[in-house]
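Hi P.,

Sorry for the delay on this. The queue was packed all week, but I finally got your sequence through. Input first:
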Amino acid sequence: MNGPDDEFDDFLARRKPLFRRPVDDLEPPEEVDRVVLRRAREAIEIDRPQRAFRGANWGAPLAIAATLLVVFTLVLHFMQPSMKTAPVVTVQQVAQPAEQAWRSDAQSWLAHIERLRAEGRNAEADAELAIYKREHRALAVSPDR
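Then the structure:
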């Protein structure tokens, strides 16, 4: 049985390429393949949305200029020698707390008001009495019961 098989193999070897089946017959032509792939890429490409508001081109330089201005101001502020001066003490400042020592308790304050009235300085006495009443209003009002 070797005979007929050998003949058949010889026949297949002598066949013309016209009758042979191409090896890559499942592949499309290159031009069709290129068109299909391009359209597929375009179809899956995500549309990038247009920006509704485009920032001004001067925003970044303005921010840099403002930052430099603030830094420059801070540097100048901290580089200057501090001018701490001793507070000025006057006789009026020293005497004022002594004069108002009578405001520390209610009895001495009322006594001071009476002295002012006795001296005839009624306007000053009325002013002091108004201050006294304003200061002691919280004490004079009784709680709601």
